[in-house]
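Example record for the data management plan.
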Amino acid sequence: MSKRLKNFFSVIFALAAVMSISLTANAASDELDINSVAKVKVGDKIKFSINMSDSTEEVLGICMSVFYDKEYLELDTNSITYEKFDGAVQNPNLDGYFKFSWTNINDLQDFSKKASLVSAEFKVLKSGKTEISQFITDLYGEDMTQLKSYKLTYDVYVNNKLAASDKTPIVNDDKSKEKKMQGDFINYIDGMGAENTPNKDDHPSVIADKNYVSQQIVTEVVDVTKSVVDGTSGNGGSSTVTIVIIIAVVIIALAAAAIIIVKRRDDKNV
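Corresponding structural encoding:
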């Protein structure tokens, strides 16, 4: 092969390499990385579904928020659906997130097997990197206490095709703290409950606001009870009766407070 021909092919190969690099760069610049689990293109339609399984209790009520970045994603407000929460009250027009709540004492829902808590569709507006995250304010069962055994996951669909499944949801720290969303439910990083996690010795959580109402009520009642009990004297029988009465009143007060809190949250326009 002549030297001139070799030089010609060298130029051709160099141009091909440059074009390949350019095409790869352009393709990458058109992609949006969601939660580091799915890469989508500008204009794509994605569906994000947050699921729960392994619950040892049926669900009586829930209050939950889902966060996204409006610079990268446009929420289709008509696409928000609930597999098991008929009649859920929602507000899809909040700044960078939507929120919903549901409760029905006559229709508890079973999440022992994987089912969707909520799903929503978005249009991809811009390339780059972004997150879709969540924060649960309350998630309680028939006895009005927060669930302790469960597993949260999420799935991502791109143009109706499954792109990622059974991923651990990201708990939003900043926005939930800013909006004072902390309730009685504790959001754990691994998406599992305190009783069924394999990480019992190291189970980090996100607490958006430690001074939420229910904690304050319990603390105040316990403090008052402690003061009365510690200050009792005189006839032992009379003191015992007094203590029993006080404890009964405390239990009734706690129950009433719990009902009021739940009702206010359910009635609140989310």
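Summary line stored alongside the record: Residues 15-27, 213-242 have pLDDT under 50 and may be disordered.
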